[in-house]
Amino acid sequence: MSPARLSALCLVCLTVVALVAPRAAAQPAVAFMSPSAVAPGAPADVVIYGDNLAGATGLWTGIPAAVELTPGVEGNGNQPKEVRYRITFPAETPVGIYGYRLGTSGGVSNLRLLMVDDLPTVADNGQNKTPETAQLLTLPVAVEGACEPESFDFYKFNAAAGETVSVDAVARRLGSPLDPVVRLLDAAGKELAFSDDEGGIAPDGRFAYTFNAPGEYYVEIRDITYAGSGGHRYRLRIGNFPLATVAYPTGIVVGSTTALEPVAPLLAAGLATTVTVGAQVGSQVPAAARYATGQGAVPVTLMAATGSEQVEFEPNDDVAGGGSPVLVPGAISGRFAAAGDHDLFGFDAKAGQRLLFVGMTRSLGSPTDLLMRVMKPDGGVLAEVDDSGTEEGTLDFTAPADGRYLLAVEDLHHRGGPQHVYRVDVQPYQPGFSLSLEAEKFDVPLGGVMVIKVNAARRDYNGPITLSLEDVGEGFGLNLTRQPSSPGYRDVFLASNVIPEGKNDVVLSLTFPASIAQGPPRVGRIVGRAKIGEVDFAATASTLGALRPQFAGLPYPPPMLDGSVGIGVGPAFGDFFKLSLEGDTVRFPQLVGTGTGKVKLEKLAGFDDVVNLAVEGLPAGFTAELPAIAKGQTEAAIIVRGPAAAAAGDYRFRIVGSGVLSNQPKSVTLEAILRVGRPLDVAAAPAGPVVAGATQKCKISLTRFGDEKQPVQLSFVNLPPGLSVPEGLAIAADAAELEFDLTAAANAGIGSFPGVQVVATTTVGGKQVTSSAVFALEVKMP
Predict the structure, then answer these.
(1) Are 497 and 468 contacting, i.e. CB atoms less than 8 angstroms apart?
(2) Contact 433/539 with Cβ under 8 angstroms?
(3) Which of 26, 193, 346, 488 lies in the 20 to 30 Å Cα band around 17?
(4) What is the DSSP string of 356-379?
């Protein structure tokens, strides 16, 4: 790649914490790899481009591979803009798209995508901007190229009469921002085939064409909006290979062998592949399909299952027929063979039985937008859901009565064809939760802190969720609770690894000891566990929200990468300030609309500079004013404003402080509570027991919130028999306490009375406000 094209790249690195030691390298940011594909079973030298790549410590690939710095390259591993690696994937690695991360002395890179491809690779020569200068290709081949602004790339090849050639533009599937348009032209410039967005792979495009006459033909590729840069990259595959988008059936039982039928609109007859799923395989399985005498393979994805796998059989579209029977629990593989096709499945349910129907289409490579309905036997609709958004649909159904029900499925737009495959997983409803992370990588300073915010979406479970960091890598185990040093483990301390009962997030602060040294990138996952009834429930935190922007909005990144968390160890440095909130809360009085608090700064290691403060996570309708803590100062006042009629309760929010020492940043997140309550507190304190026939002093104290001060009227509830207080007790507007006499009659009741209540009444903002406090009285004999 030319330096000019490389300089045009915009490099983005998503992290939650960026902690770097003084004068050390910044964290690596990878733009792309060239070539973007490696053949299985053969060593390949690749160049990784980006920023801050010096000090390379290793390369992680999403599937096992042998990696080493390419030997014989002067300065390799110490250049800031590029590094060269030799990668060897096992020969049995399926053609497909996988992930990689680069590690350096500064940390771990963002996650990027590479392809395992069995087609030979050539590079775009950069001179092919017109048909007259088209680059000549020998098929089969895959071209590594990049689209320039307001430009075209042309390639030419020779084809024989009756020959079928497939053209596949792999761009967004590799995380490129390119939205490709691909055309096939004859020598006279006539368009023979065109592809923009193809179902199952959009916005990428591909087509297959059978030639009527021998001759020279041209492939043109450009961005749909004529955008371009050194980062608008593509891998253009041309040859005799299938254009399968999804396998059928969509699942295979772990430990079994299944013959799969890859499906697409245009495939030669008899195409099939066989896959065996071992017990070690996760929830999704990569596989590949090829023609028996073809020139390359294409990736397909299917689910590894442990339960019942069923396929639909036609005819099953007549309500009167009751639909095909479906087992619960189990999974259904089906397809809409023609436009307007719909399928029905019958199942029995008891009154109150709750079932989940989870649809999958586009994440498996099918273009279908699945519409699911649960119906009564007469066709009346009881529930429905579609998956027209980026998330695929889940139908939550509770049977209203014992009986037979129908599951009806169809394409939302009534499309059909062999590639319109779907999968529906039918399971009894299980209370639980899902977890998500806002970042897909974390850099930890040597001996420093890794901060991870974990969000939880709960489903009828409100209890604690215990978190752990797992699968970090061979010989390197971490758990988010304290682990004693032992083979394969390190001593790691986490302040809290539990999402508390009733809460939906937690910020984990994981401290790494200096014994965990800098080295190759490590990849793990955050897992949450809970005992829900009799079920040991577990869920891996999703990183899809962070991965999609990394890959230019790719809606379905390779499924094996969801939940993947990159961890890099960078250089060390020490803490230099701490934050605290006086009293741990900001009190927000109702009817006043303003609450205040005080943020305290503790300075360490000679730090005495500005600390900028920000507030995050306040409830809707609330705002905060929080100035920076200036140089030489140690505190700042926080003012929270919000609705005067806000509901009482404790609301968690965060105060984030950021400062710089020796040009290095440090962020500290302080978990705080906004306590919304009445603008008046009252307390009672009797001087001691009351003796029958005598008096005793009692003091009432007030705490007012806000600037408005009005007289406060006092009354008492549940006074012991024979006890009395003066009439018309009140605390003046300019006073905060009142002392008065409790009088006990000679025949007053004797004993302990714990439920005496004082009620304080005043006005705030023209509204009557009451506050009460319960206290105990003891009445004794003379």
Answers:
(1) yes
(2) yes
(3) 488
(4) EEEEESGGGT----EEEEEE-TTS
CB distance 438 to 452 below 8 Å: no
Instruction: Cis check for the bond before 242: say yes or no (omega within 30 of 0).
Output: no
- The CA–CA distances, whole Å, from 698 to 510, 772, 774 equal 51, 16, 13
Distance from C-alpha of 77 to C-alpha of 114, rounded to nearest angstrom? 20
Are 121 and 458 within 8 A, CB to CB? no
Tell the residue number behind the tokens 């060269």, with chain if given: 84
Amino acid at the residue 394: T
Joined together, the tokens standing for residue 263 give 């499906």
- What value does the mean pLDDT take over residues 618-632? 95
Measured at the alpha carbon of residue 491, what is the angle toward residues 442 and 29, in degrees to the nearest 5? 15
> Which residue reads 């005496």 in tokens?
756
Two tokens, residue 346: 């019958």
State how far the Cα of 775 lies from the Cα of 757, in Å rounded to an integer: 6
Q: What tokens were used for 23?
A: 């004068």
Residues sharing a CB contact under 8 Å with residue 288, sequence separation 6 or more, in sequence order: 94, 95, 96, 273, 297, 298, 299, 300
Closest to 14 measured CA to CA, from 223, 219, 175 = 175
Give CA 81 to chain center in angstroms: 29
Which residue matches tokens 């939880």?
A: 456
Q: For 249, how many CA atoms within 13 A lie in the half-sphere containing its CB?
A: 20
**Tokens describing residue 407:** 């599951």
Q: Which structure tokens are listed for 597?
A: 């608090």
Q: Is the pTM of this model over 0.85?
A: no
Strand partners, 146: 233
Q: Are 386 and 370 in contact (CB under 8 A)?
A: yes
Q: What is each CA distance from 573 to 579, 631, 662, in whole angstroms?
A: 18, 21, 10
Euclidean distance between CA atoms 25 and 141, whole angstroms: 39
Token representation of residue 503: 């809460």
Taking the C-alpha atoms of residue 220 and residue 236, their distance in angstroms, rounded to an integer, is 10
- DSSP per-residue codes, 628-644: -B-TT--EEEEEEE--T
Q: Is the pLDDT of residue 8 over 50?
A: no
Cβ distance 247 to 302 under 8 Å? yes
Query: Residue 765 — very low, low, confident or very high, per pLDDT cuts 50/70/90?
Result: confident
189-242 pLDDT, tens per residue?
Answer: 999 999 999 888 989 999 999 999 999 999 999 999 999 999 999 999 999 988
Q: How far apart are the first and last CA of the chain?
A: 101
Q: Which two tokens stand for residue 713?
A: 């009227």
Find tokens 């006042």 and name the residue: 637
pLDDT at 88: 97
* Cα distance between residue 43 and residue 92, in whole Å: 14
Nearest to 307 by CA among 282, 327, 279, 333: 327
Structure tokens at 547: 């991965």
Local structure of 123: helix, strand or coil:
strand
Q: Are 226 and 180 in contact (CB under 8 A)?
A: no
Rg over CA atoms, the chain: 34
Q: Is 771 helix (H, G, I), strand (E, B) or coil?
A: strand
Q: Pairing relation of β-strands 612-616 and 649-661?
A: antiparallel
Distance CA 261, CA 370 (A): 21
Q: Is 559 helix (H, G, I), strand (E, B) or coil?
A: helix
pLDDT at 271: 54
